[in-house]
Amino acid sequence: MPGVLNRALARILFAQMQESSMTQTELARKVGLAPSTVSRALHCKTPMTVDQLEAFCKALRLDPSAVIAEASR
């Protein structure tokens, strides 16, 4: 089960995805992952890897360091 930090990261990424009017399918295509993998990561069904976090941030035009700092508050 993903921990507190992972849940906070997922919440931030999911909010940015919605703000950008991007679907999970679009995000999956941009990062080269299956939509089910993106869904599991963003809904905290599986822990998000560092590589996934970096890919999601790049696709959403976010700074990974800033996202981690915000999630750590």
TrEMBL record:
Domain HTH cro/C1-type residues, every copy: 22-67
Name of the protein in its database record: Transcriptional regulator with XRE-family HTH domain
Pfam families for the chain: HTH_26
